[in-house]
Design a protein that fits this description.
homodimer, 428 residues, alpha/beta, Aspartate Aminotransferase, domain 2, 41% helix
Chain lengths: 428, 428
Amino acid sequence: MASHRAHFRFSQRAARTTEQPIGYLMAAALEQPGLISLAAGLVDYPTLPSDEARALFDELLAPGPDAKAAMQYGTTEGFAALRHAILDHLAALDGLTPEQLNASADDLVITTGSQQLLCLLTDVLVDPGDIVITEWPSYFVYTGVLRTAGATVRCVDMDDQGMRPDDLERVLADIAHRGELTKVKIVYVCDYHQNPTGLTLSRERRPAILDIVRRYSAEHRILLIEDAAYRELTFAGPQLPSIRTFDTTNEYVALLQTFSKPFAPGLKTGYGLLPRDLVEPVALLKGNHDFGSANLSQHLLLRAMRQGIYQRHVRLLCGHYGTKAAAMTDALRDTLGDYHPGQTRWTMPAGGLYVWLTLPEGTDTGRSGALFSRAIAEGVLYVPGEYCYNADPTRRAPTNQMRLSFGTARLDEIREGIARLARAVKSF
Amino acid sequence: MASHRAHFRFSQRAARTTEQPIGYLMAAALEQPGLISLAAGLVDYPTLPSDEARALFDELLAPGPDAKAAMQYGTTEGFAALRHAILDHLAALDGLTPEQLNASADDLVITTGSQQLLCLLTDVLVDPGDIVITEWPSYFVYTGVLRTAGATVRCVDMDDQGMRPDDLERVLADIAHRGELTKVKIVYVCDYHQNPTGLTLSRERRPAILDIVRRYSAEHRILLIEDAAYRELTFAGPQLPSIRTFDTTNEYVALLQTFSKPFAPGLKTGYGLLPRDLVEPVALLKGNHDFGSANLSQHLLLRAMRQGIYQRHVRLLCGHYGTKAAAMTDALRDTLGDYHPGQTRWTMPAGGLYVWLTLPEGTDTGRSGALFSRAIAEGVLYVPGEYCYNADPTRRAPTNQMRLSFGTARLDEIREGIARLARAVKSF
């Protein structure tokens, strides 16, 4: 019976799980020395708080019970003291007390980055064929989760104020009209300095989006995932309240944040404040995944928060990324400001790591297009905009856009990278 | 349309995901001061290498590029330098070179503990209704993964030499006879100092088990998961070769190990050496989960391995756990040696953290039974054996067994805990 040629027979989930196109981009960046990557969503190297972490580990791991506790297994839902500190922090970001936010530390789950929580929330709610609603465009790693889950994705237009409530209403009404409202499980919004566009949901739209989700939650509750990964990296404009603050009964919104962007990705620690009745299902599934994310990271982060080191670092980063963002948008103005005015435009982020560039209609920014190759030849890498659009059966993705990140590139690299990009663009 | 009473509608996976009974036990342990827990699978506190980690972090995070790299995002499959070090380590454990093992660093994936890899491997292979074969009894956290995946579980008898090849053959022949061989995706074996029994698969049976899996892999390949989490904690007897060494073409065996048991659970880092054609599907799914486990932990572990600190620590642990295991089996002999001889027996582990105690037929060790309550009243906690049996539709789980761990309890607590347990047992 033996046959060394027999193949593994993969699950349906595995069959739906496809390569993230960004993987190719990262590999390309490593292969060509001198290439300036404006593609990677990594954070800035020089500002990574390694000195701070070193001092904190020195304290944490000094002989005593704390040291041993940090090296032992933690709990599935995460270190309780850190969850309390996070709760206070989240409430403070909204200018509230935890009581005013109607939240407790028991509503928080700590995960391996906020990505794991996106995955867990989707897995506990979405069966194949269920519908998830996202922005158009949206965060492409979540796109991978949705594909694996077998979700049908419907998308909602954005403008300079973020997701458009009128279009969300239109999409939901259309779904209801088709008799498929029972399939809608999640509305996903990256509402601060969105990945990939850098756009932020305006103050006025925050309760409006929630209100629509609530109104369409007749037969069952639709979860509104508020992905606030870039929230704390707000370097300009007002600090907007979370959508969660308007969900005063704590029923509809899962507010997801992370320590990766505002502190250090190497600790791989994210978290979410969840409607109470989602905590147990999420924790049970996480029990299967890993029964708890790295405990040592969590103990370190508690010290960083308690000593104000975390908060100080966030302030430093905001100044830093503000300068880098300005360098990028200034460079775009200087090099592409006169290129098909009105047809060439870019976002002016008030935070986060991204600028979204739109080129004249007919430009093909795709990986197999001439511009992408030309940009590589010039020595600059970007993320083709098409990767950021989910496969909505009712829509066709634009092909004339790109995501530019000022995360890792130095100031001089940002200027030089944009100059190279502009040369590539203008060569057509 | 609004209704604040609407519930979330959970996925089928969530509906299959149930509470781990061990959660209750852990909570019970915390609630009763003075309770000696022989239930927890945690590792020994005093030996946790916090001093070593402190010194290593001091080096790693000293100003320089290594510090920044460790604080940045890593890669989905894990830090390449650590994968190379692990490869050398795995080969050395089998007394081979990586070439002799027919393995490369590209065949290794680093995960959030080996638990995450159990979850990923199951998810890429198992659809609801597919069959997974485990030992009888087996590791109960993996049971949770199998329930969520919707797997049908068939179990194979063990004896003092571990999983019985003749029973594996019988089970597979029975499945084939029913025409269900196409559903068999995984054979799961915890082959060193098994959780929960402490039993080890004998030298002779290692190639025999693999041979059976190979012979039944006619229509598609069956994956043999070799869970070697406790392998390095071998404190007595010979170092047995991995089953993987007999899979010379690297096609059938996924060899899973971890840094949690032999070094520190707080780093939450495990890994697996996989058949080449499983690496990509696993990495793609892990891309959805978290696109990489905590990078800082991985950088620390590389230094611990390169400087021999890891290896030295493993030797220290082996001596330590050997002493604790002897304390437990000695205490069992002293307190239960005369209790229904022949009907009361326990395993004599050569490694790991567990002793498996069998009491006379008719004893009920279950959580709702009188013995469990009596043991709690005496001040000792154990894991009821019934939790360690998968729901095999063709079998009925024994109710007269328990798992005893010498992981966290001190020597005096082990002796006192067993004395309390013996009093509870003898009170009936």
